[in-house]
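ok so i was messing around last nite and threw this chain in just to see what happens. nothing serious, just curious
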Amino acid sequence: MSNHKVSITDIAKKAGLSTTTVSRVINGKGEQYRISKVSQQKVLEVAKEMRYVPNLYAANLRTGKSNTVALIVPSLSNPFFAAIASGLNAEIRKYGYITIISDSDENFENEKKELEQLSARNIEGLIIVPSGNQWRHIKELYDQQLPIICIDRYFEDLDLPYVSTDNYDGAFHATKYLINNGHVSIACIQGVKESTPNRLRVKGFKEALEQSGIRDYWVVGDDFTIQNGYLETKLLMQQKVRPTAIFTLSNTIAMGCIKALKEENIRIPQDVSIITFDEHPYLDYLSTPLSCVAQPVNDIIRIAVKFLFSKLENKDMNAIKVLLKPKIIIKDSVKTIL
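result:
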């Protein structure tokens, strides 16, 4: 089998037309240059027959456009970010663009290197979930007029567009829900400490407790991983006075928490109640479906993509800073203490 890549010249020879005519038809300019319908049809048929694949790299050089948007997330193994990536890819496809998806592995240096490589590929826009609290590498590209928007995680005091959940509101009301069900001994297993969502969730958790006059509580953990949830739950269950309820700040943390409780023969919710941040379909298939704070993921995706493409279309839009309200979904994992 020949490895020869079919070119416009090959199509022109077989079609009996000039390379200029073939090029114009292939690039969708047949009508503009008044090429006959018969010739246009012949070019397209020959191109299909010869399995012609356009040279997108060469086209990018000619037009200066790549029709490519980059997405960087902290971890594709996290179901929340995997769902974000899938939804964004589908929404971006509607605009005729493709998405290059990169996983920073929750590491700033990885994120910085990935961004350098992606920008060298002539990306036209960037959607990013930052992995830490460093922002200069992102702001530099933004100042160079690359359309950028942060989602989920963002920088509160920086002039960078973002759309996210009102994490404080979600955590505050989730904690209030536990308190209203009689819980006064509550632990919070947090994720990446310096990330904006985590800080605001912890703040909401603490203020809900303090407003209710509860001063003794636990805030433990340092990562949005199953292992973090598992280890911290193991340690919490060794306390002389155990928490009656645990608030996990991601569904991955919740999975580790559930595993640890099962190993200790501690029942949910009879012995310990759980509420988690983030909704996912698998939460309904657990032996005890988990109550959760559901983020408006689809709305976040639509707003982010619409903003990005408005910038790509050169519409004059200010840097948006949008926080959407989450929703508490009540299931079976919280017991009322009388």
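not much to say yet. The mean pLDDT is 91.
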